[in-house]
Amino acid sequence: MHSIQFKKSLALVLVVVAFTYATALQNDFVNFDDELILLENKPVKDFDIYTIFTKPLAEDFVPLTLLTFAIEYKFFGLKPFIYHLDNIILHLLNCILVFFLIIELSGEDTRMSFISSLLFGIHPLHVESVNWVAERKDVLSCFFYLLSLLVYLRYSKTKKVSFYWGAFIFGAMAILAKSFALTLPFVFLLIDYYQGVKIELKIIIEKIPLFIVSFLSILIAWPLLHVMSNTESAISIQNIIYVVPAFCFYISRSVLPVGLSVLYETGATRIGFLAYVITGLVIWGINEFVKTHQSRKNLIIFGLGFFLISGLPACQFIRIK
Per the domain annotation, does 276 fall within a domain? Predict the structure, then answer.
């Protein structure tokens, strides 16, 4: 049984996050991707599951996300309230999962779980994913991603086969909701490291089923993902060079979320000097924290590794959607 402090902390997170996003229920659809993803998407309106799961949409392969839209359309038509409500519900569920994930990783530190899940819930970088109907793929993929991590943590502690396949199934669903979840097998390895498991061949072999799902999702979407063209390849020198500035950009926006936009110009020259300064201060602060909190060293390493691994797709190291 969880303590009263645990329940109050989690309840407070949910109340604050729900209040923060309540005004989104009054929003309508927008003419930027909502038309392509939902309003004018014939397979979604026709509940054509075969097409949804076999043919990428424009530059995206997000069949599970499209399936949720198809279900909503079948029962509710095009009522914006329903679509926004479901996005908010998914985000609240994600806050709960973050709370439990940090509880598991931190040794049941309720205060750390409260702060982490609250920041996750109300951070301005998440507004786009929650308030924009077409970005359902973010909150849906995140939901299954976090579920997969929690179940895998159970597997790593108990070695029960049911938890292993549960983590695999939720991981596959995360990938089918959005291709950014392709990083999940590597995060599993990071969890093994955090749990003190020696990384050897049999540990890597355990992840093969999820690697296969990742490969198949790329294979299906390959023709329309623009990962290769006459002028650029899936991994180019330009992509590699841009990784460091991109990470600086995202770190700075996480610490100081100003100048946010739906679309950003790419290129190292467009990353402001302030982003590098903030990143440097963050690195210095983490280093100083580790020096004085050695007991939290592995958790901090896990957090940094998680940020770097999960952030690679956003940095366009490999050009996937």
Answer: yes
pLDDT in tens, 246-274: 788 888 888 888 877 776 665 544 567 78
- In terms of Cα–Cα distance, which of 90, 77, 75 is closest to 24? 90
Can you say how many angstroms the Cα of residue 29 is from the centroid of all Cα atoms in its chain? 23
Q: What is the pTM of this model?
A: 0.88
* Domain of 273, in residue numbers: 227-321
**End-to-end CA, the chain:** 41
User: Is residue 193 one of the residues assigned to a domain?
Assistant: no
Sole residue written with tokens 């424009």: 58
Q: How far is CA 246 from CA 238, 243, 249, 307, in A?
A: 12, 5, 5, 13
Q: Which of 6, 250, 27 is nearest to 108 (CA)?
A: 6
Task: Confirm whether 133 is domain-assigned.
Answer: no
Q: Which of 23-32, 222-231, 300-309 has the lowest mean pLDDT?
A: 222-231
Structural domains in the chain (count): 1
C-alpha distances out from residue 216 to 89, 132, 211, 294, 311, Å: 30, 28, 9, 41, 21
Crossing angle for the helix pair 80-106 and 136-158, to the nearest 10 degrees: 30
Residue 286 CB neighbours (<10 A): 14
Q: Is residue 214 part of a domain?
A: no
